[in-house]
Amino acid sequence: MAPRKKKACEYKFPHPMDNDVLVGHADTWRTFMDAWNNRDSHPIHPVWMLTGPRGIGKSTLAYKIARTVYGNVGDFFIVDLARNLDKNGNLKPDGKVISVYTVRAMIDKMQMSSMSGGWRVILIDSVDELNTAASNAILKLLEEPPAQTLFLLVVHQLSSVLPTVRSRARVEKMRPLTISQLRELCVKFLPEEDVSTETLKLANGSFGKIANLKTSGGDEVYDELIQTLTNPRSNAGDMMVIAKKIAAAPELHPILLDAIAHFGLADMYPAATHAIADINRLYLEPEIAIFKIINEVKKCL
User: What is the pTM of this model?
Assistant: First the structure.
């Protein structure tokens, strides 16, 4: 009997704080460790910016560095959406941007912390999610970094960071993972799954994308989308069925661009990108917009 297929909701992936498995990025890790081990003779840069696409292991590396420097994950200062605060100091983890109140609370705690000779670590995950006021508050802190304080800044898109913040950091550009590295992570975190080469290619070097596809069932939806597009007998009804499945999960919208890339329809890419960006903003029924994109792809095949 074939093994039971795991339901999407059963997948569990560790938070970077709890993940001791770092695959790839040996060069960035080695660069930091060389600087850390020689800090007595050559002062280490206080601000390290880890930048690269989402889901490649930037946060995992940041927490690995933090464990090395501080030695006790959970006691250093973390700024992220999960710890987001509103103006009253209440936890508001469901936001889309990190507030200035979150940054100010971190600064207050940092100023009250003991400076008995140990290093302090401030980890921001991610800088992209700081609102303007929060970015400016961080900038003021970076202008005169406190002694024996290491800033680890996770950045998904370097162009979104204030140039004044970027200029005060040592920028480490991290590359997407290779297919073999993605396979290694799949063996570790998806041991019961036979992850296809197509899904690995679809991930574009991001294990985070594989995790999202598996959690949402997006890999199966993508396969169905490709089958619908390549089947000469598929009709408008078939395309609407798959359009509704994609519309039901906004995180699946980018698989339309993956399908366009799969068929080598580069000319369609700019218009489709804009159309997808407009889906949630303009359409009360997103499946209609998605259907139109699928239909246009179908016409080109």
Answer: 0.85
